[in-house]
Write a structure and sequence with these properties.
The structure holds two protein chains of two kinds. By secondary structure, chain A is mostly helical. Chain A has ten helices and one strand. Chain B has seven helices and eleven strands. The chains are: A mainly alpha, B alpha+beta. The structure holds iron/sulfur cluster (2 copies).
């Protein structure tokens, strides 16, 4: 699948934003501290920015409101609805924390739950597509949720360290979630080796005669289908990129957060900031590969 | 409404494509583009039409495959490999995954005849339905920003202002070899259903669970010339007179 920058930015930014919002909703950070207020604003910015970026690839964005109507069958519609619903408790709580120095317990918890549901809906857009073997597994929503949670806990530990709060606990939670996320991701990636559901033989129905090979494509040049679905990445590049994602998204934040545990809040802050940045970069590469390595069934015809 | 009709539609209009007959001339591709660029919804645009990177929206495309039997050899014209021309357009699936993923309700399956359509005024051009279709039957029009797909020429098949013979999809009407047939596949007595039954018509990618309405007829087994019955020499022993003389003279030359 073609890795469109707008969608990669959207899933990375909103994933991190919802993760942070979910952890903030638990009310572990001191609402009096400036860093907590900034954290609330940042979470909303990441979510909002991600959503805006996701509308950039639409052919007719002026009709985007229509996408809220088909939540009975469409995960994309559900995601849109949930994203809007989630904004209500998130902005309420953010407003209260920023201007009234008070954390709202119920709005906070509602925000936490709804943020998780929204991330789940995003992941299900991909996981529900049977035509793309790599995505069509419960491991897809599991990894999206875990990555979001890991990023949220790490980011929250940074803001807790810059103010007052149980930052060490949050950092440890982030590290655990990080390991879980990558364990799921490795299992997800192993699935790519499996025999694909469809082959050129089943796609053409000519398997009974023999082995099918494309002799002449319908057109000499690329078309919408081949440029959208036919992205090919060399195996050696994919494995190199995966190692980069693994190093930046797991190894680096893990080591940095671990060292931070033994430092005073000031030093821990710097290391945790670096950990969050490395994590963000690693997840961007991971998301790029999520698309680039996924093979669409239509390519059996090309 | 992106929920699929709850019961099987009373009619299942669709195509039957005969892979034994198609010669890969692409006439259906062109007639489809010609009809549909001026018909239902936005025109089928081309990008960079006179440049090197020309591309465009098509609702029907013809691929050509080489099929090599197991242990077969490809030796020029005389090998066991064979070429199969393969036209492909929307199969108007009964369990159409392209419909249920649509967030806006632009995509729908008609409850009476099973045709899958896009209501373009509602389409936001998100492209998700094209991802959901395993067959590559949906293409985004890059100029209009809306999704295009085969309508089964809905503006021909029910059109009482054109002669009855033309009330079939443009591709079917055009095909010079009669490789494409249109009809109701829910009716076991229809010509298309009989054809499917007689020739062992099959579904594309049944493992995707889409239950396509369109069927494909397999290429007939290949026979070589030597194994077919020799051409009978006509018996002329009954000829008399002048005809007998002409017959014997012609035999001699
Ligand atoms: S062929 Fe593709 S576009 Fe047509 S109904 Fe089936 S899934 Fe939908
Ligand atoms: S591109 Fe249009 S028809 Fe397709 S899923 Fe999106 S809104 Fe629906």
């Amino acid at each position: 699948m073609h890795p469109a920058l707008s969608i990669i930015v959207f899933t990375t930014a909103s994933g991190l934003g919802y993760g942070l919002a979910a952890v903030l909703g638990l009310g572990l950070l001191d609402p009096l501290s400036w860093s907590t207020k900034i954290a609330h604003v940042l979470a909303l910015l990441l979510i909002g920015g991600g959503l805006i970026s996701s509308t950039l690839h639409l052919g007719n964005p002026q009709r985007a409101w229509r996408a809220l109507s088909q939540w009975r069958t469409s995960w994309l519609s559900r995601e849109g609805v949930m994203a809007l619903v989630t904004f209500v408790p998130l902005t309420l709580n953010a407003f209260s924390v920023i201007f009234l120095d008070r954390h709202l317990i119920w709005a906070g918890l509602a925000g936490t739950v709804l943020a998780a549901v929204t991330v789940y809906c995003t992941a299900m857009i991909y996981a529900s597509l049977k035509a793309i073997d790599a995505w069509h597994t419960p491991l897809t929503p599991a990894s999206y949720l875990l990555f979001s949670g890991a990023g949220g806990a790490l980011a929250a530990s940074l803001f807790a360290a810059s103010g007052t709060g149980p930052w060490a606990g949050l950092a440890i939670a982030g590290m655990l979630l990080l390991v879980a996320a990558w364990a799921v991701k490795l299992a997800w990636r192993n699935r790519l080796q499996r025999r694909p559901r469809s082959t050129p033989e089943t796609a053409t129905g000519l398997g009974a005669i023999g082995k099918v090979r494309l002799f002449e494509p319908p057109h000499i040049n690329d078309n919408y289908l081949t440029s959208e679905m036919g992205f090919r990445i060399a195996r050696k590049h994919a494995s190199k990129l995966f190692r980069i994602a693994f190093a930046a998204g797991l190894v680096a934040p893990l080591i940095l957060a671990f060292i931070a545990l033994f430092l005073p809040a000031g030093g821990a802050m710097v290391l945790l900031a670096l950990a969050v940045l490395a994590f963000g970069a690693g997840v961007m590469v991971e998301r790029w590969l999520f698309f680039a390595e996924a093979r669409h069934a239509v390519m059996n015809y090309y | 409404m992106t929920s699929l009709p709850s019961e099987s539609t009373p009619k299942k209009l669709g195509l039957v494509i005969d892979l034994d007959v198609c010669v890969g001339c692409h006439a259906c591709v062109i007639s489809c583009k010609e009809w549909n660029t001026g018909g239902y919804g936005a025109a089928l645009s081309d990008q960079d039409p006179y440049g090197g990177a020309v591309s465009g929206t098509f609702l029907n495309r013809v691929h050509s495959y080489e099929v090599v039997p197991e242990g077969g050899e490809v030796v020029g014209e005389r090998g066991e490999a064979r070429i199969v021309h393969f036209p492909k357009s929307c199969l108007h699936c009964e369990d159409a995954p392209c419909v249920t993923v649509c967030p806006t309700g632009a995509s729908y399956k008609r409850a009476d005849d099973g045709i899958v359509l896009v209501e373009e005024d509602m389409c936001i051009g998100c492209g998700l339905c094209a991802w959901a279709c395993p067959y590559g039957a949906r293409e985004m029009d890059l100029s209009a920003g809306v999704m295009k797909k085969c309508t089964l020429c809905i503006d021909r098949i029910y059109n009482e202002t054109i002669p009855e013979i033309d009330r079939v999809p443009s591709c079917v009407r055009t095909c010079p070899t009669n490789a494409r047939h249109f009809g109701d596949l829910a009716d076991p007595g229809s010509d298309v259903s009989k054809m499917v039954a007689a020739r062992g018509g099959f579904d594309l990618m049944p493992e995707q669970g889409t239950r396509p309405v369109n069927k494909y007829l397999p290429p007939r087994p290949r026979r070589n010339l030597a194994s077919s019955a020799p051409v009978q020499v006509e018996d002329t022993s009954g000829a008399r007179g002048l005809l007998a003389w002409v017959d014997s003279m012609l035999d001699r030359i």
